[in-house]
Amino acid sequence: MKLSVKAKEELLKVLETIDENSKGIRIYSTQGCCGPSVQMDVASAPQPGETATSIDGVDFYIEDSLAETLAEVTLDHNGFGFLMNGLKKSGSCCG
Fold it and tell me: Could you tell me the pTM of the whole model?
């Protein structure tokens, strides 16, 4: 995974304003009605089944099952929220 300059700036702002125990960004998947969804949250340490990595000075705890999915993704920020550019979507029931 790669980070845009804007995404890095925004993630560092988030980490500075959240409680001091939150040191990184957790990226994990959840199951929704339309298939898996990639989510992000702040975290203090990786959980079992996650790999810790630093990208451009930001610590990430990435669910092991997402490593290949996120390999070619660039995390960006458009001024309103985070985007995962290059994320391949699975089939969807949500048209």
Answer: 0.85
